[in-house]
Amino acid sequence: MRTKTPSESRTVMTDMVLPSETNPLNNLFGGELLARMDRAASIAARRHSRRITVTAAVNHVAFNRSVPLGSVVTVEAAVSRAFKSSMEIFIDVWMEDRFTGERAKANEAIYTFVAVDDTGVPTEVPQLDPQTDLEKERFAAALRRKQLSLVLAGKMKPSDATELKALFTS
Ligand SMILES: CC(C)(COP(=O)(O)OP(=O)(O)OC[C@H]1O[C@@H](n2cnc3c(N)ncnc32)[C@H](O)[C@@H]1OP(=O)(O)O)[C@@H](O)C(=O)NCCC(=O)NCCS
């Protein structure tokens, strides 16, 4: 199976914030942003694996800045590490001010997707070869994030999470 680069899965979705997608403060509703990120991440996972992919976990979401009504929002997703059947997807969210056009980082998130066959059974995915410094940094930290996610889901014993433990003991 051919190793792939993050740019082969990079998915960029640009859309605006409409009134039906806002909260009472006229900012983008969090659940709407989660759905947009899930969609972009799903396409990135498919581009990397060329398989059916399902969301296995939302590992991290930070709503650092509110996104006002009328903003142009760009959701950028790419595979940050591939394991056996699972892929970590890193998502960066940018917003464009409607008056000045200035682009600012609004949010980021990390999702885990799993490639499955037609019957829903996990299936192997290509490995990832990170190219840039940022891609290498995200790749390096992905294993401990996977272990944390599995520990929190009750699918791994904390004593087996070696990479994660090293963070606290080194
Ligand atoms: C995701 C799913 C396929 C995993 O199936 P499973 O029987 O647990 O399979 P496995 O234990 O072999 O796990 C498959 C991979 O997912 C990873 N995984 C499972 N749960 C995970 C979690 N919470 N966090 C991170 N990785 C996880 C495993 O580590 C494994 O990775 P690897 O093959 O790269 O080593 C299965 O739970 C599923 O179909 N869930 C529903 C998905 C769905 O419907 N999503 C939409 C939500 S509305």
What does this structure look like?
The structure is a single chain. This protein has 170 residues and is α+β, with helices and mostly antiparallel strands. The protein has three helices and five strands, in the order βαββββαα. It has a single domain, classed as Thiol Ester Dehydrase, Chain A (Roll), CATH 3.10.129.10. It has a five-stranded antiparallel β-sheet with strand order 1-3-4-5-2. Strand 4 and strand 5 form a beta hairpin. It is globular. The model has no long low-confidence stretch (mean pLDDT 95). Bound molecules: coenzyme A. Keywords: Hydrolase. Belongs to the acyl coenzyme A hydrolase family.
Summarize the SSE layout with pairings.
Elements: E1 11-16, H1 30-49, E2 52-62, E3 72-82, E4 86-96, E5 103-116, H2 133-152, H3 162-169
Antiparallel strand pairs: 1-3, 2-5, 3-4, 4-5
Helix pairs in contact: 2-3
The chain binds coenzyme A.
Coenzyme A binds at residues 54-57, 83-86, 112, 114, 116, 120, 122, 146, 149-150, 153, 155.
